[in-house]
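debug: dumping io for the single-chain case to check the tokenizer round-trip. Nothing else runs in this session.
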Amino acid sequence: MWRKFLWKNRVYVALALAVIVFIAITLILRSGGGQSGGFVTEAVAPWQKLVSGAGKSAVNLSENLLFFFSIKSDNERLNKELALLNAQNTELLEAVNENERLRKLLNYVRNSGFKLKPAAVIGYDPDSYFSSLTIDLGSDDGIVKDMSIVAPSGLVGKVLSVSNNYSKVLLLTDIRSSVSCIAQRARCAGSVKGKGRDLCEMKFLSINDDIKPGDAIITSGDGKIYPKGVKVGEVTAVTQTSDGMSYDVEIRPSVNVLKLEEVLVVVKY
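debug: decoded output
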């Protein structure tokens, strides 16, 4: 067992023996040593140099290790501080974004002329063609079926169903959705229907209607569900139908209905 230990640690054992020999010889030299002093000095000088060099190397190694661990500690501290700053920056950016959204909502409430109630979006139920969202207002808040839902940039949809504290909203892009609209420039009327995801189409336009890409589409107020003059979207493409009697008009909604966080319920208009 001891042999195994000594062999495993032979470098340290050899260094320890060298130090012991060095100390012993140094003590002899300091005590005098007579005529044999010169001989002893000559004999041990190389060992003194070796042991001294080893000592200096050990000191340098210790200093380097201390420096390494100091750098490592500083690096860990700086990484923690950076993570904290990143978290604080994220929180600040989120607060700025929320403040901007709420400012737009407030401006719309003040200038729309409608009686509105703000609501938070708490869930989505989107698929390829059917899309709805859930808001945190219900019948206890005075919400009823078919009330219009808007955002500062335009129409979102209408209330589809209501419970005590929540309501489901049918989005403008849902294929079950249909809104009476007019082209703001040409004043031609048609029905805007959802195509799923983020697109709509305008139906029942005559070949004689002057409608072009870039035209704004707004609600007409017909049907007594949606208030008049709310922006619905913009024409992105106009294609003549195969019978040559009408147009297929593609509409890009003015509201990205799948990225809403707050909406406004039109209680009265």
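debug: round-trip ok. The chain has two domains: 1-111, 117-269.
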